Input
Amino acid sequence: MTRIMWAAVLVLAVLTVPVWAQTSQTSSNIVAGQQVAGVRVGGNVNDALTALGSLYNRADSRSGKYSLYEWPLRPFVVIAEKESGRVVLVVVVLNDTYRTDKGSVTGGSERAAVEATYGKEFTTDEDQSSITLIYDTQGIAFDIGKVGVMAGRVTQIVVFTAGQWKAITEGL
Output
């Protein structure tokens, strides 16, 4: 009887591992211009709230055009149009769990990996602590650290409505 029970547990484990792996891979995917961890750019912010949980902070942008949501226990910031609730931008902050579907770029990846994967056709925005590589037509941007252990490495990955970087960021 014990052998049969162990055999059944082993068969169950073999059958569930591929399903678990597929689920975890899908939930940690970042797709330029489309989604992060199942939160769809262009989708409704209520779907993001359901997916990421009810423990979040909400604030309005300075312009009043957007609502900003951040989860203290998760590495996400979501920005949605205040009136429509449409998600326009999702940020993954300092995390190597979530990776791009193209090239598997994560938090901590080197700038060279970003450029090898997404190309050298980008614009930049720079401050004291980071330089942002903006791939506007693809709907993705990467903050690259300039100081400390994260110098030259990805600190944030930003997915947004393709072609709308300037309109979104100026509206904040």
Summary: The chain has four helices and twelve strands. The first strand starts at residue 29 and ends at 31. The domain at 30-170 is CATH 3.40.33.10 (Pathogenesis-related Protein p14a). The CA atoms of residues 94 and 131 lie 15 Å apart.
